[in-house]
Write a sequence for this structure.
């Protein structure tokens, strides 16, 4: 059974609160020491079964993107699929023994962005760089349709962390081919991602 919980109940602390605590670490290929960490190592738990739990939101993520596996996410071939196929893949995925995987909404996927890192903009200690094969933008699908066009949906770009429904002035089409990272757990309300602040502490789901 899936539950909808207000985002404010989960994201309760401002980013500044997170940065006021003890020194943080985040592993990534391209770390900019001048940028404050948004998702340091302490935010995550490696479940050692191909999944990672975010301690702030309680969401459980597949460590590797769709099509990849292994401790460093280099086994297999990363899949680029349409939005429709991404939704279908989530419905049939049984990774790590779970059958309730889903495509994350734009708020949820955006919460993984590590702004101190780039290309990929993610904490590679818990999400190995092999899980985001290099390409121009590293776009990942979200489940959020774009309200301005029935044929479009939102993506998160893990080159720098942008959330977009357009590219070069044109809508991102649901038939375009992008990457997928699946999630399970409480569904966070899909508010404007620009309003999201990444907290330091939070209660995980039971």
């Amino acid at each position: 059974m899936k539950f909808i919980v207000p985002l404010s109940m989960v994201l309760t602390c401002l980013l500044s609160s997170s940065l006021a605590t003890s020194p943080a670490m985040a592993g990534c290929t391209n770390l900019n020491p001048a940028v404050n960490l948004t998702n340091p190592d302490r935010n995550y738990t490696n479940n050692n079964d191909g999944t990672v739990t975010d301690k702030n939101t309680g969401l459980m993520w597949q460590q590797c993107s769709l099509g990849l596996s292994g401790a460093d996410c280099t086994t297999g071939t990363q899949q680029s699929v349409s939005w429709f196929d991404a939704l279908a893949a989530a419905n049939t995925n049984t990774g790590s023994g779970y059958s309730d995987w889903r495509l994350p909404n734009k708020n949820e996927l955006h919460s993984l962005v590590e702004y101190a890192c780039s290309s990929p903009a993610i904490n590679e200690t818990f999400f190995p760089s092999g899980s985001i094969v290099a390409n121009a933008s590293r776009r990942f699908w979200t489940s959020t349709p774009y309200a301005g066009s029935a044929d479009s949906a939102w993506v998160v770009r893990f080159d720098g962390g942008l959330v977009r429904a357009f590219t070069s002035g044109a809508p991102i089409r649901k038939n375009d081919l992008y990457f997928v990272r699946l999630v399970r757990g409480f569904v966070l309300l899909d508010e404007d991602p620009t309003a999201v602040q990444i907290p330091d502490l939070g209660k995980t789901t039971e």
